[in-house]
Structure formats: structure tokens, C-alpha cells
Specification:
disordered N terminus, elongated, eight-stranded antiparallel β-barrel, 11% helix, mainly beta
Length: 214
């Protein structure tokens, strides 16, 4: 009798586990929104690895290519550096052609930013225009959520919009000659993080495009 009651209670769970579509074993993808971002243009490649029926780990690497609209507009200026991300996802909903997940993500950026600036030299005796190097290191953690859509005949094409919110820790340093005094440029919004260490809110928003391997 106890065996019959046990089977009645757990048979629906067993059937659901057998018929549940699950998530891909491996997904390879690129962040399309990062490549199209004119403020901080970057290429970014990532992969998701399934750990269980509802959990996956992901890791990604890439590089910043430039900032044509904000930080590197003039000849001789550049905005380049390393971009790393990793995290975990928990899938709350799984269907045949899509899945919905929540999770955590950590990131690290190491950027070298060169701008053409005006500086005063030798106790403000003369003005000089020269390239100024600025380094920026960023550590961040954020909660995120997103959808994975599996498209095509074999569900191999992956479309993954996502969003999230967290905090980022920045450390900015500007390398100047010992006698140089930087002339601050005017403007209501510069979007540059302040010199030294700072903490800022971090908003995640983008779209991945890739291949799902089942």
C-alpha cells in the first residue's frame, strides 16, 4: 500500500523530469549589443556550460575596440582593454523553444584610455598639447535575468536578450609628467569616472547571438 501511495505522489514529478525539454549542454555566443555600442565598442565572446537540469555556468572574454562618440573622438586617441565576465544561471522556466533564467554575474575590465589634452608645464610657464594616458580598472557584481530563444529547425540558433542591475568598483589613474598640470575641459557631462577609487551603480542590458549544442 505504501508503495502504491509513493508512486501516485511521485509519478507526475518523474514524468515531468523525463519530458522536460531542458537547456543546451553548451552554448557559444557573442554579445551583439557590445559590438554596436558607440560609447564603449567591444567584441565579447562567451559560453554557457550546463551543470544540471536547471543550472548553468557561463564565462566570457573580449576586448574594448574604441569609443568613437565619447572617449576617443579625435586622431591619436584610443580606448582599448580587456573585458572578462563569468556567472551562474538558474532556469525558472524551460520550454521546447525558450527558457527564462535568473542569476549572478561578475566582471573585470582593464582599460587604457589615451586622449589629446592641454597641460601646463614648468610651473604654468607654458602650455603644451600632448597625449595623456589614463588607466581604468573595474570590478563588478550584478543580478541578472534573461530569455534564451532556440530558433531554426534543430533549435541551434540562440537569441538571448538580458538585463540586470548591480554595483561596480572603479579605480582610475592618469599618468602625467611630474611638472604637468592638466587643464580640465568644460562640459556638463563628461562620463569619466573620477580619479582614484569610486563605486557606481551598474546596469546590464544587451543581446547575445550564438549557437546552442544539445
Amino acid at each position: 500500500m505504501r508503495t502504491i501511495v509513493f508512486l501516485i505522489l511521485f509519478l507526475p514529478v518523474c514524468l515531468r523530469a523525463q519530458t522536460e525539454p531542458g537547456i543546451p549542454l553548451l552554448t557559444l555566443k557573442t554579445n551583439v549589443s557590445a559590438l554596436l555600442n558607440p560609447i564603449k565598442q567591444a567584441y565579447a565572446f562567451a559560453a554557457d556550460f550546463r551543470l544540471s537540469s536547471r543550472i548553468s555556468a557561463d564565462a566570457g572574454a573580449g576586448a574594448f575596440l574604441g569609443s568613437p562618440l565619447q572617449f576617443a573622438q579625435r586622431k591619436g586617441e584610443s580606448y582599448t582593454g580587456l573585458r572578462l565576465r563569468a556567472g551562474l544561471k538558474y532556469y525558472l522556466m524551460q520550454r521546447n523553444r525558450y527558457a527564462f533564467h535568473v542569476g549572478l554575474e561578475g566582471k573585470y575590465h582593464d582599460i587604457k584610455h589615451i586622449t589629446i589634452r592641454q597641460v601646463l608645464r614648468q610651473g604654468q610657464q607654458y602650455l603644451e598639447i600632448l597625449p595623456v594616458e589614463r588607466t581604468l580598472q573595474t570590478y563588478g557584481v550584478a543580478g541578472r535575468t534573461g530569455w534564451q530563444f532556440y530558433l531554426g529547425t534543430n533549435k541551434r540558433l540562440l537569441l538571448e536578450p538580458y538585463c540586470g542591475f548591480g554595483l561596480a568598483w572603479h579605480e582610475a589613474r592618469r599618468n602625467l609628467p611630474p611638472d604637468a598640470e592638466l587643464i580640465e575641459e568644460g562640459g556638463f557631462l563628461t562620463f569619466e569616472y573620477e580619479q582614484g577609487k569610486s563605486i557606481m551603480p551598474d546596469i546590464l542590458l544587451g543581446v547575445y547571438l550564438g549557437v546552442a549544442l544539445w
